[in-house]
Write a structure and sequence with these properties.
Chain A is mostly helical. Chain A has helices at about 10-15, 15-40, 50-75, 85-90, 100, 120-140, 145-175, 175-190, 205-210, 215-235, 255-265, 265-270; strands at about 105-110, 110-115. Chain A has a two-stranded antiparallel ribbon with strand order 1-2. Classes of the chains: A mainly alpha (about 280), B alpha/beta (about 160). Chain B: This is Phenylacetate-CoA oxygenase subunit PaaJ.
Chain lengths: ~280, ~160
């Protein structure tokens, strides 16, 4: 990225409104992905197959929520609004997460008849884990220096998430016929959404043009190489071309599942946004 | 006691910071954890730069408040500014030798120095020093710790993740 000039601080970034616009779009994508998926992980509390899995998902959700909070704070410095408000007060059409992130854990509600699908959780988190790893590696070269630094920090924590998810991926793939069949069914479900994860939304050209992150094709190619290896080493057939959902999450189009998630997540905050915690 | 020269005040600030403990591991101070990057005092304004361990650790805000409470009453201090910085990144290598001993005495094995995430890591039991241990859960009661079990003395124990 030597043709780009580096931007060291939020103040410096704010001198170029186009740069800030592109940067904000990218930050919302990364922050919202982690924020909503952390919530989906938290919904597993008390429902995971074993207490150790409860502990693990709680810890990972806490880390991911922390990553999202750090990115929302970065957005606050860039003039997007207060970090807490960005998390709790935005309407669903302001969210930039991919649709696969907001999909529910299964049918039912965590508090009422939850029929959650563990295989879907492992398939979704494993493949998101590969993607996040690649996104963080790419962000480490971002022209926005505070983001490059944050990416390095997140990578060291993310490593443990990937290790955990892949351990479970292997476990399901090499276990009973039932476990394998469930994993394959879950992968099929994930596959119909996964293509959207690599997209950078409407500001894609300027995001890449400003050297904030590598382009969509580059990221998806790297993801495909890593995922092919993972599938091959676990004896999983490559499912072929992936799909994209009808809604464009990266452009603010979402399903009702997101609206519901945000309303549950921010219920307490919205009661009194001025309360101090 | 009035410390009007800035040098003297900084010395006192470091002494006081030594008393600010990690709320989840109360035997170890933030200094021993390697979390204090800089502490400066100028015209009554004390600025402390803290390196966060795990980004989402809920103890960070508690530590921030504890620093404030500890330094605010010092004579001559008008304001305490605590900020979190990401450069240099905190890594588990920053924990001091003293800090490592204290962690062990608390039943938490510190990661070896120079250990990168993903490196094989032989963990000895903090109670009986046996190498016959197994990892039960990569995650534990806090984001920074894993749960292990000693097959020799049959005690569960914790280890701090290497990051």
């Amino acid at each position: 990225m030597s043709e780009h000039s580096y931007v060291e601080t939020a103040e410096e970034a704010r001198r170029n409104p186009e740069y800030v616009r592109a940067l904000q779009e990218l930050l919302f994508q990364a922050a919202d992905d982690d924020y909503i998926l952390a919530y989906r992980g938290a919904e597993w509390l008390g429902l995971a197959p074993h207490i150790e899995e409860d502990v693990a998902f709680s810890s990972m959700s806490q880390d991911m929520m922390g990553h999202a909070a750090m990115l929302y704070e970065m957005l606050e410095e860039l003039g997007a609004g207060k970090a807490d408000d960005l998390a709790h007060m935005r309407s669903p059409d302001a969210f930039r997460n991919a649709i696969i992130i907001e999909r529910p854990n299964g049918t039912g509600d965590y508090a009422d008849q939850p029929h959650y699908d563990w295989a879907y959780a492992i398939a979704r988190y494993s493949l998101y884990g590969v993607f996040k790893q690649i996104r963080l590696e790419a962000l480490a070269y971002s022209t926005y220096v505070p983001l490059a630094q944050a990416a390095g920090k997140m990578q060291r924590e993310h490593h443990y998430h990937v290790r955990y998810w892949h351990m479970w991926f292997k476990r399901l793939a090499s276990s009973t016929d039932d476990a394998r069949a469930r994993l394959n069914a879950a992968l099929e479900q994930v596959w119909s959404d996964i293509g959207e994860l690599f997209l950078l939304g409407r500001a894609s050209a300027s995001i890449v043009g400003f050297g904030l992150i590598a382009g969509e094709d580059d990221i998806s190619q790297r993801w495909m190489n890593a995922t092919r290896n993972m599938f091959a080493s676990n004896g999983i057939d490559w499912p072929g071309d992936w799909g994209v959902p009808v809604q464009k999450g990266r452009e603010g189009q979402h399903t009702d599942d997101l609206a519901q998630a945000v309303s549950t997540l921010s219920e307490v905050y919205r009661l009194d946004p001025a309360a101090s915690w | 006691m009035v410390h009007d020269t800035p040098v003297l005040q900084e010395e006192l600030i470091w002494q006081l910071l030594q008393e600010v403990k990690d709320p989840e591991i109360p035997v170890i101070s933030m200094i021993e954890m390697g979390m204090i990057h800089k502490a400066t005092a100028e015209n009554g304004v004390v600025a402390v730069e803290v390196l966060p361990t795990f980004v989402g650790c809920p103890a960070l805000d508690i530590m921030k408040n504890s620093i404030n409470e500890k330094l605010r009453p010092v004579a001559g201090v008008r304001e305490v500014q605590v900020s979190f910085v990401l450069q240099p990144a905190w890594t588990s290598d920053r924990i001091s030798d003293e800090g490592r001993e204290k962690l062990r005495s608390f039943g938490i094995v510190p990661p070896p120095r120079g250990c990168q995430p993903g490196d094989p890591w032989e963990v000895r039991c903090p109670y009986c020093d046996s190498p016959y241990t197994r990892l039960d859960n990569l995650f534990g009661p806090a984001a920074c710790r894993s749960i292990l079990y000693c097959k020799q003395c049959k005690n569960p124990f914790e280890a701090l993740k290497s990051i």
